[in-house]
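Late entry, evening session. Most of the bench is empty. Finally got around to the prediction I had been postponing all week. Sequence below, unchanged from the version circulated by S.P.
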Amino acid sequence: MDFNVKKLASDAGVFFTRAVQFTEEKLGQAEKTELDAHLENLIARGDCTKNWTEKIFRQTEVLLQPNPIDHTGARIEEFFYEKLDRKIPTRTTNGELLGQYMQDAAKDFGPGTPYGSTLITVGEYQKKLGGAEREFLQASAVSFLTPLRNFLEGDWRTISKERRLLENRRLDLDVCKARLKKAKLAEAKAAAEQELRVAQTEFDRQAEVTRLLLEGISSTHVNHLRCLHEFVEAQAAYYAQCHKHMQELQKELSRFPNAFAVNASTSGISAGPSPLSGGSIPGHPAASSSPLEPAPLKIEEVKPPATGTRKAKVLYDYDAADTSELSLLADELITVYTVPGMDPDWLIGERGNQKGKVPVTYLELLS
């Protein structure tokens, strides 16, 4: 290699004089040229923008991918694909994987059984939720994470580089000022004044470059504001889609009343064989009546038990089929209980002085 010894020695000398000047400033033994107030404010604003952008970026990554080193090594894989400038392959989400497990389990349990058929339905909707999650992650990465990363790894690095150069120019300027003060001879003073003029020019030029870059932070805020709106829109669309899927799933599950009979019988409300007629779950054919079946339940004669009553939240609107049933409105709270021998698919519901049979599948039993 061809080393330029003179340049190397010169650079070492400059580095040494800057280090001495910096140390003396810290010790209060040398004067320091202060930046103008406008530039100082721009620097403070730039540091604030960088710090908060970095925190928001990191926390958004955590939100979108809580476990950075999971069993797939997701972020590490993405890092290598980005460095290789290759498209990141589509990855199965946890929701899609859960849905697949449920459907595979249903095959072993029997798709014709209540549990198996319900697993198939829930698994299908888990896959839909997983697909919605993947679309949200992709949209958020493009519209929000990428612009923040570009600022931190691009614009801010350039600004930091120019700020370091400005600090060096300031140290050089203060070194020249100190030399001029120490110069005694006329020739030494003339040389020191010439060096000071050059150093002042370079410092002013670098200060202007740094100022222009820092003033660009305002444009960065405008850009990040637009990206933030896009992120919120993607988030709102994702949650709306999830809500829609869950409502559809609840309606699907309401067609499987037997799956809820266990919930009613194991939650402190007894259930037994039904001698009642005229009570059928909406959407399901009523059992054929038999001459051996007891007379229909007389609602006005039903008395709440001393213990075993519970509160229930109504999931869907329900119109009573006859006078023995109680009409329901979604989201209202009612008191429910059962009576000995009552059909497990039905409960007695009370709302104020109103009373009647209500279908279990339309309720969420509370403690």
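Two things to note before I forget:
The first strand starts at residue 310 and ends at 314.
Helices lie at 5-26, 37-64, 74-83, 94-109, 114-182, 186-215, 217-253, 258-266.
Will write this up properly tomorrow.
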